[in-house]
Structures
1.
Amino acid sequence: MKIAIIGAGNLGLAIAKGVLHSNGATTMYLTKRNTTEIMDFEKYGNVTVTWDNREAVKKSDILIFAVQPGHFSGILEDILDLLTEKHVIISTITGFSISKIEEIIGSDKYIIRSMPNTAISVGNSMTCLCSNELGEKRIDLSKAIFNRMGHTLEIPEEQMQAATVICASGIAFWMRLIRATTQGAIQLGFDAKEAQELAMHTCNGAASLLIESKSHPEEEIDRVTTPKGCTISGLNEMEHQGLSSSLIRGIVTSFEKISQIRKG
Ligand SMILES: NC(=O)C1=CN([C@@H]2O[C@H](COP(=O)(O)OP(=O)(O)OC[C@H]3O[C@@H](n4cnc5c(N)ncnc54)[C@H](OP(=O)(O)O)[C@@H]3O)[C@@H](O)[C@H]2O)C=CC1
Ligand SMILES: O=C(O)[C@@H]1CCC=N1
């Protein structure tokens, strides 16, 4: 697999680390305009770091775009004449529709829209995918690439905006919840390091319970909330303070913001 990551910033580098951890590429190009801070990646023999998107495109089959939305059109226009039938174009760009990509490079290309998250760097991304009509022929290949770095779900393109909030922004939301739990644990007497250890492993355990037992969160909550016990007292106080409501409102606000990004 010859992979190019065009835009080796926060997400692009997370994908690069995921690819490296999973031995997912024979060669990998990483591009950005200022390459100084990522030259270290060339210590991996199969990685080339360059500012030259055209070189990366010529030498690769799988092109993963991870630039900011405002930069994407210009980059596509710049590499358009180099695109051939060997290329699979995978966009991670928020709010940039497949039809908009097709307007620039044509519908006769394999186009995949993906929405991974930064946990891809440790092989644990929840990645949603969809494709243009021709790209359906490469959706299994694309799933295979992302399945090596976590879990995938193929969704209709209309749900991509929602998937961005839940899966990609979701990492930040969960981080804040883990951080708040850590602050609570510190107030109860744990030192900062132990407090974070308790918070993140408990979070991991909660997710694992749902993934492995396929149960509903409320079933698991019922198993923890001893009648007249401390859990239900704390949980009800959190709800009186609007825990679920504030999460849902935040999710909807992020979703609405993407519509503004789409309009440019
Ligand atoms: N961060 C995340 O968790 C997620 C982000 N996304 C999407 O991924 C995209 C990237 O986001 P994020 O990583 O946060 O942004 P960053 O700004 O961290 O990364 C974008 C990178 O693109 C590079 N870049 C800019 N212009 C060019 C160019 N002409 N050629 C090559 N590289 C270029 C920039 O480096 P330089 O200036 O040196 O060129 C920068 O490193 C966005 O569209 C975002 O919506 C999607 C899911 C999750
Ligand atoms: O915040 C953003 O706009 C991007 C998309 C999802 C994660 N980061």
2.
Amino acid sequence: MADIVATNFNLFYGDFQALKDINMTLKERQLTAFIGPSGCGKSTFLRSINRMNDLIENVKITGSLIMGDLNIIETNKLSVLRKRVGMVFQKPNPFSMSIYNNVAYGPRTHGIRQRAVLDELVEKSLRSAALWDELKDNLHKSALSLSGGQQQRLCIARSLAVEPDVLLLDEPTSALDPVSTAKIEELLEEIKTEHTIVMVTHNMQQAARISDRVAFFLSGELIEMGDTYQIFSQPQKEKTSDYITGRFG
Ligand SMILES: Nc1ncnc2c1ncn2[C@@H]1O[C@H](COP(=O)(O)OP(=O)(O)OP(=O)(O)O)[C@@H](O)[C@H]1O
């Protein structure tokens, strides 16, 4: 595992520059929250970390994004990158298959076939996502029969099953009720010492509750990054202070 380091990172959608000269270190085994008003580039930067932006036409990137020995921008081994960097989206998107097969899907695509190994990975991942006790007797039920909160925890379990270094989460609780949100926050706090977690959130209380570090974006720029306590109690930049006190955004 290693820190993720962005240096002079720029991203353009056609002529539009969505990210401007980002210099940032995402520390390993910490949870970093990306905050900022809508359209400021948080998701674009998050998607850059596992090259999801490759799917979009006319994207141009300059600068570098490095994780230890892995050059994220230049590698042509996307399956290796995506094994090391998992992603969970805003809306739970389990596959239309059983709970077991959802979690076993990633390991199977990486060639794991032995039933005992898969069983162990499924159990470990569901335990990490705080779902094992709830679901262990129903592993062959359809994932689509679960509640929204359970589906999102299943999506986290599915990402964890390939044992990634990094977990990217794009507003993972914004479609969920407060109880499901609390469960996800709790599980992220539990797993963050074993993974580097980067989460986009519009919920400032959530960032304050569970992140170790906060990065504040505005209009494609990284305005300020620091320890969560510092950002919320003693922001160094006026724009950060205006945003967190609700003056705009
Ligand atoms: N596929 C795309 N093509 C062109 N422009 C895009 C594309 N995706 C995003 N953008 C633009 O890039 C900018 C940053 O968008 P992005 O989704 O990264 O912002 P965000 O901070 O995550 O916003 P939100 O909080 O609303 O999700 C916005 O101006 C957006 O319109």
